[in-house]
Amino acid sequence: MAIWQLLLFIPACFALNMAPGPNNLLSLNNARCYGFRSALFAGFGRIAAFSVMIALVASGLAVILFASETVFFAIKLAGAGYLLWLAITLWHSEDSPVAEVSSAKSLLWLARQEFMLAAGNPKAILIFTAFLPQFVDSTGPVSTQFFTLGATFLVLELSAIAIYALFGIYLRHWFCKPSRVRRFNQACATFLAVSGLNLLFSKQA
After folding, report:
1. Residue 29 lies in a domain
2. Local structure of 2: helix, strand or coil
3. Which residues of 169-195 are buried (b: 16+ CB within 10 A; e: fewer)?
4. Is residue 11 part of a domain?
5. Distance of alpha carbon 124 from alpha carbon 120, whole angstroms
6. What is the pTM of this model?
7. With contact defined as beta carbons under 8 Å apart, do 129 and 53 qualify?
């Protein structure tokens, strides 16, 4: 892989990492509720899900997976249902859900939440299928290039998680009134619900 290809990939990839979406919103809200370290730890659940997706794309299994409309619909249905469940939970959450997460079980629960949200979105693997191959030189070692691009994507994704978590910490200090927290929770819940409905009614291609 030529160095110029990687230099073109990094800014395009980081823009994709930073795009607002359900997972980034979850990192922001986790930091606001539980602190920066908890949100960053939870983000490794998303990294694990994306690692599996990148491995599927690199091995070519993604093509087989999405050749089946039944499998695609099952994943989409599960992902949309999980988004809607999160939306309902957040809408009815406490006005001031600031708490410290110290137990391993609670941290693992947050990480599992990130993993489920990322894994339940079939559009994510479609993005990898369409995005990563554009920067692969077919005349060179394809597997090595996929590993390099995938690793770079995951590092940039972790950076995006940290940025959204820092913004969540900033919001934590801004929400001194329960009414602000309630409106923010409802706005986030609405966004998640819309994302879930959009995923549910979207087509495969």
Report:
1. yes
2. coil
3. eebbeebeeeeebbebbeebbebbbeb
4. no
5. 9
6. 0.73
7. no
Which tokens is 81 given?
A: 């249902």
What is d(CA 79, CA 123) in angstroms, rounded to the nearest whole number?
10
Q: Which residue has the higher pLDDT, 182 or 94?
A: 182
pLDDT tops 90 at residue 42: yes
Which residues does 52 contact at the CB level (< 8 Å), separation at least 6? 119
Classify the C-alpha dihedral 142-143-144-147 as positive or negative.
positive
pLDDT of 205 reads: 46
Instruction: Show the domain range for 181.
Output: 21-201
Collect all residues with Cβ–Cβ distance below 8 Å to 123 and sequence separation of at least 6: 199, 202
14 within a domain of the structure (yes/no): no
- Total domains present in the chain: 1
Helices 69-91, 22-34: axis angle to 10 degrees equals 30
Q: What's the pLDDT at 45?
A: 95
Alpha-carbon distance of 90 to 84, in angstroms, equals 10
- 6 falls within a domain: no
Say if residue 157's pLDDT is above 90: yes
* Residue whose tokens read 């995923």: 199
Exposed/middle/buried for 104, CB within 10 Å: 0-12, 13-18, 19+?
exposed
